[in-house]
Design brief:
There is one protein chain. This protein is of the alpha/beta class. It is 42% helix and 21% strand. It folds into 2 domains: 171 residues, HUPs (Rossmann fold, 3-Layer(aba) Sandwich); 177 residues, Argininosuccinate synthetase, chain A, domain 2. The strands form 3 sheets. Strands 3-2-1-4-5 form a 5-stranded parallel β-sheet. The protein has a 5-stranded antiparallel β-sheet with strand order 10-9-8-13-14. Strands 6-7-12-11 form a 4-stranded antiparallel β-sheet. The radius of gyration is 25 Å and the shape is elongated.
Length: 400
C-alpha cells in the first residue's frame, strides 16, 4: 500500500513531468491524475494528455485558463509595471499561481490526497507552487519528485531514466535547454546557457528574430488603453488574448523582447536566464508612458516603489497574499485615468514611444512651450526658488 491513494500532477508533457508520472507510481501513489494547463503556450495539449495516459496516469485533464490568465494575472501585473529586478516581466512566475489554483480545483474535484510538481530544490517554482497551495488548501500533501530523488536534477540521468522506461521526451543530451512558454513570454535555461560568458546561440530563441534578420524598415503601431488595460491594436478592438498573441508576432518580427539576465533567485543563488517577451515588453513600456502622461508626479514616484514590491511578490511566490491584494486595490485607483493611445516605433530590437494622447493628459503645451504661446508666469519663479531653497540656505548659513 502506497502512502498516497491519489495525487494530482502538474503535467506539461516535457521531460521532468513525464518521468515524474512513472516515479510517483513506483514510489508514492497508487494513482496519478495529470493536469495540463493551457496558458497560451501553443502546444498540442491533447497529445500531452494522451502521453500522460500512456505513461501511466489514470486520468488526464486539459484546462484552458488563457482568459483567466490574461484578465486576472497578466493585466494586474501590467498595471503594476511588474518587472523583476527592473528587467524580467515575470512570464513564468505569474503563471505558477494560476497553475496551482487549477491543480487545487482538480484535486478537490477528484478527491485527491496530494498534489505534485516537477520542480527541483534549486528553483523558484517550487516555492511559487507550494506557497500557493498553503494559501488555497493547506491540507493537501505536496510531493516534489525531482527534489526527493536527486538524480532527477541531473538532466542526463533523467533522460536515461526516460529511455529505460520507454518514456518519449523531446530533450536530448546535445540540447539540454529547459523551456517554459506562455502568452506573456518564454524562459530558457540549462545547457550552454549556464556559462554566463557564452553568448546565447540563436537556437535558444524562437519568438524573436535576431537583429540581423529583423526588417530594415521600422514599423509603427498604436495601442489603446482603458483604465490601464490594453483594448486595441492599430485601432482594432481586441480581447486580451488576441491582442497579446498579435503583438507577440509583430514585435517578435522586429527582434523586440530578448533578455539575457543574471538574476537573484529566491533560494539565494544567481542564475543566468534567457527570456523572450515581445508583447510584454511593448505593453509594459506603453503602459508606463501613458501613466506618466495622466498621473501626477508624486503618485508616479510613490507607485514606482510599490511596483517593484509587486514584482518581488510575484517572483517570490506570494501572489496569494494580503499585501498583493492590497496593492491591487491601490493600483485600481491609480488606473482610473490611464486611458488613451500610445504610438510606438519598432525597429531592430528597439521599442520607442513616439506619440501619446489621452483625454486625461496633464501635459499643457502653454506651460511647457518656449514660444509665443507661453502661458507660464515667469515672475513666480524667483519667489518659488527662494522658498524651495530656504532650508538649504539656512543650514549652510549656520557656522559660517
Amino acid at each position: 500500500m502506497k502512502e498516497i491513494k491519489k495525487i494530482v500532477l502538474a503535467y506539461s508533457g516535457g521531460l521532468d513531468t513525464s518521468i515524474a508520472v512513472r516515479w510517483l507510481l513506483e514510489h508514492k501513489a497508487e494513482e496519478v491524475v495529470a493536469v495540463s494547463i493551457d496558458l497560451g503556450q501553443n502546444e498540442d495539449l491533447e497529445a500531452a494528455k494522451q502521453k500522460a495516459l500512456k505513461v501511466g496516469a489514470s486520468q488526464a485533464f486539459i484546462i484552458d485558463a488563457r482568459k483567466e490568465f490574461v484578465e486576472d494575472f497578466i493585466f494586474p501585473s501590467l498595471q503594476a509595471n511588474a518587472k523583476y529586478e527592473f528587467d524580467y516581466p515575470l512570464a513564468t512566475a505569474i503563471g505558477r499561481p494560476l497553475i496551482a489554483k487549477c491543480l487545487n480545483d482538480i484535486a478537490v474535484q477528484t478527491q485527491a490526497d496530494a498534489v505534485a510538481h516537477g520542480c527541483t530544490a534549486k528553483g523558484n517554482d517550487q516555492v511559487r507552487f507550494e506557497v500557493s497551495w498553503l494559501a488555497l488548501n493547506p491540507q493537501l500533501k505536496v510531493i516534489a519528485p525531482a527534489r526527493e530523488w536527486g538524480e532527477l536534477c541531473n538532466r542526463n540521468l533523467a533522460i536515461d531514466y526516460a529511455a529505460k522506461h520507454n518514456i518519449p521526451v523531446n530533450s536530448t543530451k546535445k540540447s539540454l535547454y529547459s523551456i517554459d512558454l506562455n502568452l506573456w513570454g518564454r524562459s530558457v535555461e540549462c545547457g550552454i546557457l549556464e556559462d554566463p560568458w557564452v553568448e546565447p546561440p540563436e537556437d535558444a530563441y524562437s519568438l524573436t528574430k535576431s537583429l540581423i534578420e529583423a526588417p530594415n524598415t521600422p514599423e509603427y503601431l498604436e495601442i489603446g488603453f482603458e483604465k490601464g488595460i490594453p483594448i486595441s491594436l492599430n485601432n482594432e478592438r481586441l480581447d486580451g488574448i488576441s491582442l497579446i498573441e498579435k503583438l507577440n508576432i509583430i514585435a517578435g518580427e522586429h527582434g523586440i523582447g530578448r533578455l539575457d539576465q543574471v538574476e537573484n533567485r529566491l533560494v539565494g543563488i544567481k542564475s543566468r536566464e534567457i527570456y523572450e517577451a515581445p508583447a510584454a515588453m511593448v505593453l509594459l513600456k506603453a503602459h508606463r508612458e501613458l501613466e506618466y502622461l495622466v498621473n501626477p508626479k508624486d503618485l508616479m514616484h510613490f507607485k514606482a516603489g510599490l511596483d517593484q514590491k509587486y514584482a518581488e511578490l510575484i517572483y517570490n511566490g506570494l501572489w496569494f497574499s494580503p499585501l498583493r491584494e492590497a496593492l491591487d486595490g491601490f493600483n485600481q485607483k491609480t488606473q482610473q485615468r490611464v486611458t488613451g493611445t500610445l504610438r510606438l516605433k519598432l525597429y531592430k530590437g528597439n521599442c520607442i514611444v513616439v506619440g501619446r494622447k489621452s483625454e486625461f493628459s496633464l501635459y499643457n503645451e502653454g506651460l511647457a512651450t518656449y514660444d509665443a504661446k507661453d502661458t507660464f508666469d515667469h515672475a513666480s519663479a524667483q519667489g518659488f526658488i527662494k522658498l524651495f531653497g530656504l532650508g538649504v540656505k539656512s543650514f549652510y548659513e549656520v557656522g559660517k
